[in-house]
């Protein structure tokens, strides 16, 4: 592992602070809409992921997308099942796997929440150009991969 000089160390710490601050500010900006939806943040995440992917997902895939634990993901999915927004069924090709998919009510709710979410996303990301967003996306993909491989 290479030794970092003080300037690079300061930059790394400053970058981590900015990333953390951005995450907190985005969450704070979205929370009023999430509360209004009657769902929790993790429930909205699961609905948005299922809506975006346009296919049923295994619980393992949801865990990977949400970076959550299996226990927490199960609670979120079970609460969404109780709300009639998702259902869980056996995978036809592998009976050990359970697939989570949107119900009609879940699709309707996810569609509405997604539209509201996108209005906020556009506002949050409006200071950046398309090229800057693509560059950020690429950099975060690399950083996420590095974290997954090293921790």
TrEMBL record:
Domain of life: Bacteria
Organism: Shewanella youngdeokensis
Keywords linked to the UniProt accession: DNA-binding, Transcription, Transcription regulation
Signal peptide per UniProt: none
SUPFAM superfamilies tied to this protein: Winged helix' DNA-binding domain
PANTHER family reported in the protein's UniProt record: HTH-TYPE TRANSCRIPTIONAL REPRESSOR YETL, TRANSCRIPTIONAL REGULATOR, MARR FAMILY
Protein name as annotated: MarR family transcriptional regulator
Domain HTH marR-type: residue ranges: 1-145
Coiled-coil regions, chain positions: none
One Pfam assignment: Staph_reg_Sar_Rot
PROSITE patterns: HTH_MARR_2
Gene3D superfamilies hit by this protein: Winged helix-like DNA-binding domain superfamily/Winged helix DNA-binding domain
């Amino acid at each position: 592992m290479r030794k970092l000089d003080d300037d690079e160390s300061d930059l790394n710490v400053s970058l981590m602070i900015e990333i953390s601050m951005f995450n907190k500010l985005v969450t704070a900006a979205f929370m009023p809409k999430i509360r209004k939806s009657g769902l929790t943040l993790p429930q909205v995440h699961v609905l948005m992921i299922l809506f975006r992917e346009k296919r049923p997902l295994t619980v393992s895939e949801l865990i990977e997308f949400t970076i959550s634990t299996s226990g927490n993901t199960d609670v979120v999915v079970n609460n969404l099942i109780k709300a009639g927004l998702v259902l869980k069924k056996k995978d036809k090709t592998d009976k050990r796997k359970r697939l989570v998919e949107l119900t009609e009510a879940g699709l309707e709710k996810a569609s509405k929440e997604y539209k509201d979410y996108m209005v906020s996303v556009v506002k949050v990301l409006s200071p950046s150009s398309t090229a800057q967003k693509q560059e950020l996306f690429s950099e975060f993909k690399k950083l996420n991969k590095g974290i997954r491989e090293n921790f």
